[in-house]
Amino acid sequence: MFSWFGRVSFVPYSKVQDFALHLRNGYLMGSRCKACGFQTFPPRADCPECMSGEFEFVEYTGKGTVWTYTRIDAAPTGFDDDVPFTCVVVELEGGGRLLGWSGETLPQDEVDIGMDVQVVPRIFEDTPDIRVFYTIEKPGTTWHKAPEPHLG
Amino acid sequence: MSRVGVIGIGHGRFGRRSDATVQELAFEAFREALTDAGIERRELDASVIAAVPEYHKQRSVAGVVQEYLNLNPLPTWLTEVACASGSAAIRTAWMAIQSGLHEVVAVIGCQKMTELATADILALMGRVGEVQWESVFGTTFPGYYAMFATRHMHDYGTTREQLLQVAIKNHYYGARNPNALFQKEITMEKALASDPVASPFCVYDCCANADGAACVILAKEDKARAMAGDQVVWLDGLGCATASMSVLRRPHLTGLPSAHEAAIQAYGQAGVTAREIKVAEVHDCFTIAELMAYEDLGFCEKGKGGKYIEDKLPYIGGGGVAVNVDGGLKAKGHPIGTTGVSMAYEICRQLRGECGERQVPDANVGLTHNVGGIGQYCFVHVFKNS
Amino acid sequence: MDLGLKGKGAIVTGGSLGIGAAIARVLAREGCNVAINYRRHDTEARKVVEDIEALGAKGIAIQADVSVYADAEKMVRTVVEELGRLDIMVCNAGITWDGVVWKMTEEQWDQVIGVNLKGYFNYNKAAALHFKEMKYGKIVNISSINGMRGKFAQANYAAAKGGEIAMSKSLAKELGRFNVNVNVVAPGLVLTDMMENLAPEFQATALAETVLGRFATPEDCANLVAFLCSDSSRHITGEVIKIDGGQYI
Questions:
Q1: Global pTM?
Q2: Regions of chain A where pLDDT drops below 50
Q3: pLDDT digits (tens, 9 = 90+) for A12-26
Q4: Is residue B21 a part of any domain in this protein?
Q5: The CATH number of the domain where C84 resides is what?
């Protein structure tokens, strides 16, 4: 069900696929290595520091700062209805970086390097199937989290 | 350790080659290289093919090229590291010769970019980044380099005009290179007015895909001297380094760590510094890429790339290193598997003094800087003519 | 079975009489705070609120014309403010205005569609806007077996009831990703005042069809609705459950 993630999916399976399930419920999850404590976003199953394969999900606040961005006008396949969109790379509180779209509270011409932002989990509303993503919004933007369901 | 030298070179016309298959393109360059080396086919020991296979309908391109060049039963294999495949193939051939396993190896870069339907090509290009966390949001190849440009402009005050000066220079030289895809110069007005692609880039910041092939033949030192005498160009410095595939894990976005590292290795091995480099072929897939290359390769200080091009230093006779005076990727076009070999071809011609109106005076040490993707691979080679 | 409804907030349209009133009372019995709306029967509505409060829950009654969307939006806002939360929307308000098609006036058609089908759209939409933000919600729409099998002299009512089923299935598909369940309860004949207007021979025919030999009470329907409002039924969505004693199998 990692295939839920993104406007278009290229990756159906992953050891961290529950990331998409958590995102749908409004939780942004990074990973922490159970052996050495190395924490990062995006989550990864295998620790780059100590090589352990034992990981757990850890919730991120979604707070961060803009590291770089670009407004894409020429669309790749599958994104023809979305251009122009602005891809923003955010340095996250908690460690790691995230790439996502600027959201409604953040006009494309206001995005600037170094500004504080809030990553917000989102669910696509115009697709027949469940698809999840996140947007980069102004700090203080809130959203609701669903109670976590049974996993599997 | 004995040296390895280039004894023969060949290059086909880059462009939309709907007149030929990938193996027919390879043959054009190969034939020219053999003639240039003055050797027979039977004097080769092996070939190494550089191509990015996903763009071809033919599976296992190396095999079909080897057959068409009539090189069976010689050994061959494909090397692929995205846009750096050409240089990777050259490094592989160098290693094969230094190991003693082979003595004379042909490196053939060949690529078609236009065989698939447009939608398939676009879809392929959409998967250029890290598909799990990035491509799902519609990142594009220009988009990635645009993110570098946004950062460079923020940190160092680099301007859009400075970026486009790179394109203007390369089209100036491309207009003087019959093998280049684009044969016309461009103006700043025209460039600034072109369609936006990914901020801050417009169409003129971006190289174009192309079909094409190039070939260089390498030989071990004693064979090279015997076969090619004064014409040999020596490959004396080889650097190679990698960096994260994902832009999310780079230490910074104002240069390519892999290029910087590869340059240090190549200069060290060749016993030169950046100051000795007279002519260079760098990987200008986008204008910012060439600008960052001036800095990563030590042609100028970090952050001063904009000024370097604005002051026209990388032009022939400009006072700096002459960069991409065959048009670069920007004007030649970028058949991705071939580009590294095309770069080597130009440096060899320069070091042999054969470039006519595009000749860099006293070119004795040259460099190629060939990047794969957004810098997950970089190969830097230093050549000398004596 | 503890349905886990304690402290939740619900709206029941047409909650002053019959099935709606029973649903309101049963939800309150389960600990849910309930807001009802009504058209004319203000005395009965007040009595339902009293009963809700006697059960220890909070109750609100609002007079409304369910065919007006703005009122639906306003009610959702009011309920979220006064009850603190909204988790459940039960659409029940409905009228009949029977007649064979060749005698049925446009007004008869429009009124019944307007109150029954459009009314459900209004409240389902207002609830959907809230539930998708909350990533939680239960919508139960009360239909009828007549919406599934048709009924003599009820082209308008059957059309509305059938339309509610198709609408509910569409909403289930749209809202599932937000953790919202949308289901339909389809009673047969139920012992309410709507039924009291039926001629005795029609009642007898209906009873003869019903394999369990009895009619549903409003509380029978309310128990099913309460189940569908709970997380015990969290995996049921886009479903139509008949509660008709086997009147239409």
A1: 0.87
A2: 152
A3: 899 999 999 999 999
A4: yes
A5: 3.40.50.720
